Amino acid sequence: MIKDLKEFSVGCIYENESLIVSSKENTISIYFDSSIANENKNSITVPVDFVIRQHNKLVPIILSKLNLNKTIFARNCNVEKIEKNTAANFFNKFHFHGATTSAYNYGLFYKDELIGAASFSKGRNMNRLPKGKQSFELIRFCCKNGITVTGGLSKLMKHFYLEKKAGDIMTYVDKQFSNGGSFIKAGFKIHSETPPLNFIVNKKTFERAPLKENEKFDADLFYKVQNSGNIKMIYHPNEK
Predict the structure, then answer these.
(1) How does pLDDT run across 66-85, given as a tens digit for each residue?
(2) How far apart are CA 59 and CA 49, in angstroms?
(3) Which of 103, 206, 207, 217 could form a disulfide with 49 if both were Cys (CB 3.0 to 4.6 A apart)?
């Protein structure tokens, strides 16, 4: 990962159990122990198994936090529906967790190029909403590597909210990578937080799998890790 980062002319120093990565614009600290709370907006926690298996997807996240991305303004982009396969290919390539099942997919296009995408669930009835209104879930959102679309998430959210006449839209933000600030700027509000989840990691392949509470595992083959939990956020632009 350090080798990949140095190709972008950034400085890398390992000290105090963290990797400090610097550009002319910013400096961030990367921790590899998931038990360390990530409260600092200039730090992220990256478990070792992620570094080994997905370093190619970590580098763009780090470069984005260093403000090294090309900026495109959402006002210069168009929102269009995209096919499921198009969305899946985009998320598998650019979203850290890859593609997953969704009902609706929309893309941000700049000069006919797909540079951002969001996927949503079907609507669900919720007690918190008036009769006839449904809640949808934002399942995935990301932009193409090396690109930051200023106002991109907000534009996609407004488009979907109005098109579906949604009561609200909720999402979960992975605390390992974000404090939710960009979602708040897009119109989301913090609802609650979910507790950390446990996983086991294969010592040879570094593949991880969920670990149920009180579930036993072979410590010779696996080791246990814990994520940072999620922030549950709700988008309701008409709510002050």
Answers:
(1) 989 999 999 999 999 999 99
(2) 15
(3) 206
Whether this model's pTM surpasses 0.70: yes
Residues 115-171 pLDDT 10s:
999 999 999 999 999 999 999 999 999 999 999 999 999 999 999 999 999 999 999
13 close to 19: Cβ distance less than 8 angstroms: yes
Taken in order 123, 126, 129, 130, the sign of the CA dihedral is positive
**DSSP secondary structure string for all residues of 114-143:** EEEEEEE---EE-TTS-TT-EEEEEEEEEE
Residue type, 40: N
Rounded to whole angstroms, the Cα distance separating 142 from 71 reads 14
* Residue 57 DSSP one-character state: H
Q: Apex CA 226: angle with CA 222 and CA 231, to 5°?
A: 150
Measure the CA angle with vertex 123, ends 119 and 129; round to 5°: 125
How far is residue 122 from each of residues 102, 137, 192, 201, measured CA to CA in Å?
A: 8, 8, 22, 33
- Ranges of each domain in the chain: 2-68, 71-194+229-235
User: What pLDDT is stored for residue 31 in this prediction?
Assistant: 86
> In the 8-state DSSP scheme, what is residue 90?
H
| C-beta of residue 4 within 8 angstroms of C-beta of residue 21 | no
Q: Are 20 and 10 in contact (CB under 8 A)?
A: no
Q: Could you give the CA distance from residue 226 to residue 195 in angstroms, rounded to a whole number?
A: 10
Report the alpha-carbon distance of residue 175 to residue 159 in Å, rounded.
26
